[in-house]
Amino acid sequence: MHHVAILLGPVVASFELGCASELFALSRPEYPHWYQTDIVSFAAGPLVATGGLQLLVPQIADLSRYDTILIPNWSVSEPRPSDALREQLLAAYQRGARLISFCSGAFLLAELGLLKDKAATTHWRYADEFQRRYPDSRYQQNVLYCFDGQIGCSAGSAAALDLGLAVIRRDFGFDIANQVAKRAVISAHRQGGQAQFVAQPMQKKTNLLSATMDWALLHLHQPLAVEQLADKAGMSRRSFDRHFKASTGLSPLQWLLQQRLQLVQHYLEQGQHSLEQIADLTGFGSPLNLRQQFQKQLGISPRQYQRQFSCSPL
Fold this sequence. Notes:
- By secondary structure, the chain is of the alpha/beta class.
- It is built from 13 helices and 11 strands.
- The chain folds into 2 domains: 3-184, Rossmann fold; 201-314, Homeodomain-like (Arc Repressor Mutant, subunit A).
- Keywords: DNA-binding, Transcription, Transcription regulation.
């Protein structure tokens, strides 16, 4: 059984707490070995949440029973934790616990020195302040979330859902993460990064791009050239690249690769096809190319992935 602590500070962001609770604290008896989650704090209550809401949660002094510690938010102006909390979080990291931050929660991890030389992100409005205070982290500017070893960070607000679903995908696989997303009526996997949510002019080509992307998803088994997609959208290659990146935060080739890898994960979990067949069905062309891209992008081989998430080994 995987034990999760949702760790709150004295001031709580209600939305991020809601995201954490929906994904990790909601009872899901249909899934064996689902998370056992506690909402806890090292601060004495009542805690103050958005809108003046007061919360009473268990005050604890020990994190040793938890495999994952999730920080929905943290103070940006005063991120320094108490000595007791610092000691417990550092001990948790040393024993291999996973530390997950939503939004401003990254400030707590950075204060502990755990983000030194590691990929990190937070809400775009805090980006400059975060980089000024913690220049030794490898700040990721235009991502919804990032992982580096046992640490994961999400951008602000709704990106908490993206990171949470990514954690569930790692623990329970593609299909269950999709079912969790469906129950929450959210996208199982959003593309792009924070830059797409910063105020910018509306893209006039959005509908054409959307139709082209929908068409591409139905033809992932075929070789797809960017020039072909641009023609489908009625644009020049240069204009297509520019509008695509502005709308998704990714190049067309990066987007195609992500879509194909998600489809590979789905087929691997089904366990009904050989790697050769999966390579054909997903447009990778050969098992060797599939293996190389899968390992490079996901940090695990297709065989290891299927061994973890399917009963039918390759």
